[in-house]
Amino acid sequence: MDSPLLYIALIAVVIVLAMLLPRWVRRSSATAADREERRLTEPRTAAALDTLGTTLVVLAPEPVVRELVDSIALQHPRAFTPLPDGTYGIRFAEPDDAVARLVEVDGGTRLEVVRFREYPGMPNSWGFWSELRDRVQSGARERAIETTEGSPLRFDRGSGADPVWTAVEDG
Description:
Layout: H1 4-53, E1 56-58, H2 62-75, E2 80-82, E3 88-90, E4 98-105, E5 108-119, E6 122-123, H3 126-142, E7 147-149, E8 154-157, E9 164-168
Antiparallel strand pairs: 1-5, 1-7, 2-3, 3-4, 4-5, 5-6, 5-9, 8-9
């Protein structure tokens, strides 16, 4: 049993395992980390998309609603920015991280998110969008204007390091 060939073979197996084992551990750890990250972020992303897809219909003509939203944006310049094209920027980090617009619909004007940026792997402007919707709803109530929830929007995710999500037109 004192054969040197057996010891050499055992040493060779240990060396090969020592070379291959770290790669296997790294690969399986990275796969497990990706699975866990998806498991944690998917429900939060779905909730953020639901919130960002919620629209508000103000039962008033577009100029009346624009005046209301403009006054809210001017009262809260760090959160909301009127943009040159008539839309409204919702700030997370930049003034136009999310962009909302007014759309005339039957019997009123719908306030909706058109697009938004994703920062570290998920949408982040949903809280500010909720705040804008709530403020518009409160302002409309103060002016004795009725509001209702509009049909929800769906979004497509762009590609890249910081993807942009855009509203999908149904129809």
